[in-house]
Amino acid sequence: MEEEIGLINGENSNYLKEHFSSFDNSVNILYFNSESTNIDFCLSAKTILYEINELSPNINLQLFNFEKDKDVVQNYNIMAPPAIVIQSDTDIGLRYYGIPSGYEFSTLINSITMVGRGNIEISKVLREKSSLLKEKIEILVFVTPSCPHCPRAATIAYKLACINENIIGTVVEANEFPELSKEFNVISVPKTVINKKHSFEGTFKEDRFFEELIKGIA
CATH assignment of 4-88? Predict the structure, then answer.
């Protein structure tokens, strides 16, 4: 019988240990928890993060209370718990709201890997185009754990945030934040919203995704 280690089984645990061992950089995970809001969601998200933290000395998990650590919450502009920030020593604009489960577990691993390896796999053309963007841009990507296409959209948003300090890539688990989903009329996922005014649905290649981003800041 396969050994179970919490929510991450033995086979995946061994794979991730080896995967994380290749990191050149430390990864800091800031987790914003609550004991009064979205309690079940917070507990599940925290459990996953605790288990990931145990898999590598290169990963450092820091816990904050959404209601009590107001300065940190304000500094990172955290909307609601459960919320996750992935960074190196400084904030690079990666946010995840909700439980990183199902297909979205890969989104979490992708973000950790980008920071840990310090290598963002994106075309030279897109990197150059992104460097020309000087205004603040927020990319909201609504996802669900059962959607196999959502991690691709989420990862592109994270890549753009990593290569441009003016971009914030925010991934939101749509079912766990119904009010936010209602505000942006999320009917299907992935749905991406640029600066709260331009949106598009579906999974695009990176260059097409960037074209839609430009429409949101035009």
Answer: 3.40.30.10
